[in-house]
């Protein structure tokens, strides 16, 4: 052990301040990088949503599987201190590699702004991610346990408070980084071509990881460091294996039963090890139901963010983008942890209720389950406002008259008459097989038959401008625009090709009487300019859109006024979202309360119930439950295709409720232990034994204990 008397500050060992700052920087680095990942995969590497999401969840699961490796290295080989330092170096290298992988000038030899050999970038970013997963996972169980090690006997209260402060540092780091890195990402940079600045956005987390490492090393003189005690994990596995084999060999009635199945290892292993393993297996058994909590918890980043994209982000005077809603969790934690610690728990204690760790965790699971019930209710409200899109064998058509006279369109069983520059308000749904004929007629001209060339499951717009002039356009939008953005497309009635630029995005070659593809824009008023040689220079060339909200789509028709200048008319294709994002706050609040009582307590419980040489192993076991939770999401989301999103939320809520009841029953039968006391007892016994041994005559051999 290093310095025997550690320096104190506010009744805490001074060393833990270094550990908390280190954790803050490390989490800033990790979450900052993680916030960018899906966008980086999609926009830079060019993978689709499904692949990006799958790789993202795989990476997260990997980050929570590697702690077992970290715990092994720490407890059996390097000790916690050296493990944290060596793996932090690996981690910093990983962060540096991934920021290098996002420099497009690395392989962009022809300077056209896109990398020439993507595989190089993919390979580099995968190497970076593996190194990061090794680093972040490996140090995770060690840092919290190393912090717990800094406390003396009789500092339980401060130690519990430390786990709360530690959790606060995690969330403060993740909160600040999730706000800052997206701001860095939208900066423009590059040597030959300016574009979204991933190298900077990944570089800042890498720099903070280096800072985290330096801060940790600076505290080196003050830490209490324990020597690793040989390959503990190996001993544990061997001892359990021996106990099971031995029990199996002696399964006939003639052998007396033993109190605990692990007692069957007594022939070969000493009592101290057996009692330590008993403590660990008792806790690990309790962990079996816990992944279900994380399965719900980790959907904030996926499902709940997608839910936010179908909502309106205008809260009072401010506008919130859907992916910023996740910060609500971190903000609430930073507020809730101190309140729960300083107000709620003391109040419960005053009422004379013994709110044990496991009771807290049960309450946490119940609250998370209720959060999903609320999410389902919000989803039902949203579903009422969503437009109906064609399913299976259906198609939808709307008619847009961009000509100068009125037109009549005959569908099977329905006739529509439109004045000039107007559209049908709704999309009409048809069965592909039933939609045999469409005819267009206008006063004083022959009917024109339209040959319907329609794609199943899609929306189409029929542009008409003269009796025998029409064009059928596939919209390409069969869902609300993603990320709460707004789709805009242009239809030109001029006789020449137009170029339109709208807030940085270009619509090239908009030909006459046809529709451009949709491009997507965040909320707000957008400016656009129309480049056309036909229009005189006195006419205005730049226009403004209406104030775009969230999740809408519009068609802008460009036509010439009588004065010869251009005018733009707006037609709504998909109405904007109406349900407010503020409605998500109750579900975030419930989930956060659940997290505070579940997660902080779990960290501290895992530490307090573990024997001194297995603290990291149990912390790793705790983190493993997070990994399994992420895997559950991948399986459920992949296997169960729910036609209704709310049904999936209710399913998750129900599963967690069942698990919560099971956990409550398991917790009833759990008896708390004080590992330090048990170990002290063994030390006492050993001293007595040694004293007795030395006083007896050496010739008295102790009789062999096992008479087989």
Automatic annotation (TrEMBL):
GO cellular component: apical plasma membrane; brush border
Listed GO MF terms: dipeptide transmembrane transporter activity; peptide:proton symporter activity; proton-dependent oligopeptide secondary active transmembrane transporter activity; tripeptide transmembrane transporter activity
SUPFAM superfamilies: MFS general substrate transporter
Intracellular or extracellular location(s): Apical cell membrane; Membrane
Keywords assigned by UniProt, alphabetized: Cell membrane, Glycoprotein, Membrane, Peptide transport, Protein transport, Symport, Transmembrane, Transmembrane helix, Transport
Reaction(s) catalysed by this chain's protein: glycyl-sarcosine(out) + H(+)(out) = glycyl-sarcosine(in) + H(+)(in); L-lysyl-glycine(out) + H(+)(out) = L-lysyl-glycine(in) + H(+)(in); L-leucyl-L-proline(out) + H(+)(out) = L-leucyl-L-proline(in) + H(+)(in); glycyl-L-aspartate(out) + 2 H(+)(out) = glycyl-L-aspartate(in) + 2 H(+)(in)
Subcellular location, principal: membrane
Domain of life: Eukaryota
Annotated InterPro entries: MFS_trans_sf, Oligopep_transport, POT_fam, PTR2_symporter_CS
Bilayer-spanning residue ranges: 12-33, 53-72, 84-103, 123-143, 164-184, 196-218, 279-297, 330-349, 361-380, 620-643, 649-670
CDD domains: MFS_SLC15A1 (cd17412)
Record membrane topology: Multi-pass membrane protein
Family named by the database record: Belongs to the major facilitator superfamily. Proton-dependent oligopeptide transporter (POT/PTR) (TC 2.A.17) family.
Function recorded in the entry: Electrogenic proton-coupled amino-acid transporter that transports oligopeptides of 2 to 4 amino acids with a preference for dipeptides. Transports neutral and monovalently charged peptides with a proton to peptide stoichiometry of 1:1 or 2:1. Primarily responsible for the absorption of dietary di- and tripeptides from the small intestinal lumen. Mediates transepithelial transport of muramyl and N-formylated bacterial dipeptides contributing to recognition of pathogenic bacteria by the mucosal immune system.
Assembly: Interacts (via extracellular domain region) with trypsin.
PANTHER family assigned: OLIGOPEPTIDE TRANSPORTER-RELATED (PTHR11654)
UniProt name for this protein: Solute carrier family 15 member 1
Organism, as annotated: Nannospalax galili (Northern Israeli blind subterranean mole rat)
Annotated gene: Slc15a1
